[in-house]
Design brief:
Helices cover about 40% and strands about 20% of the residues. The protein has 13 helices and 15 strands. It has helices spanning about 25-35, 50-80, 85-100, 125-135, 145-150, 175-185, 220-255, 305-325, 330-345, 420-425, 430-440, 445-450, 450-460, and strands spanning about 105-110, 120-125, 165, 190-200, 200-210, 265-275, 280-290, 295-305, 350-360, 365-370, 375, 380-385, 405, 415, 475-484. Helix 8 packs antiparallel against helix 9 (about 330-345).
Amino acid sequence: MNAPHLPKVAGIDSPIADVPHNVPTSAEAAQSAARRGRSGPHPVSDDARPGDRPAAAVQDRLACWISDLTTLHELTERLAHTASLGAALEELLRAGASLVGARRGLAVLEPADGRGPATLVGHGLLRSELGAIETVPRDAALYGQLLDAGAPSGTAPEGARAEVINSDLANEPGLDPRHREVAAHLGFHASYGLRLAAEGAGHLGAVLWLYDEAGQPGERQRHLAGLYVRCAAAHLARQIELTRARDTVAVLREELLPSRLPRVPGVRMAVRHRTGPLGGGDWYDALPLPEGALGLTVGGVTGSGPSTVAAMGRLRASLRAYAVMEGEDPVAVLSDLELLLRLTEPARAATALFAYVEPTARHLLMAGAGHCPPLIVGAHRTEYVETSLSAPLAMLSCWEAPSVELDAAPGETVLLYTDGLLHRTGEPVDRAFALLHAAAAGAPRTARADPDLLVDHVLEVCLPDGRDRMDSPEDVVLLAARFD
């Protein structure tokens, strides 16, 4: 006998309303059991042979298992493809809502080790509604029991659980008045929560789904949700570690770069810096020099990750020292930097551009080591200044390059940038250079008068749709110096 086709209790594309979440009363369960008989979940005709009934029940149970496994596989596959912690939390709430038949939910992330990140994410809830939920005292919130369940042994309050069911908040005994008030205001009358915990990572937080009517998810729904949340917690633990690593690299990198640009009479500056998820080796600097001069530099060390960021910091610090001692000779500055790199970082290569600027005279003396040529932008010209006639640092046994002089007119801006700006366009190099030139040449008059507006305009044209902020292995540095 073939088993009848059974619809999934919850699928990826199933509407939430199709998933019942109210458990039948004992009277209804008794009537349903009487109708089904003792053989299985579906009625069997009177003329069916008694020997067929156990086989049909086994087939029905197998069909349910297969349906459940298929559902969990589909949901966990979607979760595994999330590339960020925020996306993983949103997918967890969405998939869990379909499993337990809820319309709204929230996830509270609060790792037990105290290292963060701590956040609150909602599903089907407005920001104001999340704010209202946050006004409920922590020890009285429904998710508070789940968070306390992850406390170290001996510190969790008595009765702490990994699953919390509140089937009727209006009549729930012992519920905090503020919680009852918020529930009535937001229109949810029941909730179901699970603790988030992963092996090796411990307690991570809690997830809670809210129902518009009194009731609770059925036993099968709770079982599926529990399995799914267990898998989701392991994925969240990995995303938390990745987020921490990214944050650490980002903080380290920001500390190694200037927090603000100096104020120099006759020059206004602006910079934009975008880094990849692992951290790259691009740097920028604007350094006041003796006799009112200014040193401008951009560059990049090959590679990515913490070691590359550290190497970038060492190289930038060394360049600052050389610039103070002999900044009026950019070739000498880069020659010293090349020697240092070859002796102390033999496995690395770098590109760099250094400009010695006399602001009052609007005179620049520049040298480049395999770096992208700067772009000068003004009312009457937009052109590249050729400074890339040399190989990158540490690529030759003896580095040498010519210097280039440039006199800027009042109102002109010099743009220094790293090759990540060109690579992130997705275009071949020649077309990327043409795109950058067109973006600068087509800048509105208001943007040309303000370096902050100009760098934003160039990024918007060259990297539209937020591509400058997307995760990419390529760093982007864009430094503008406008001469008054």
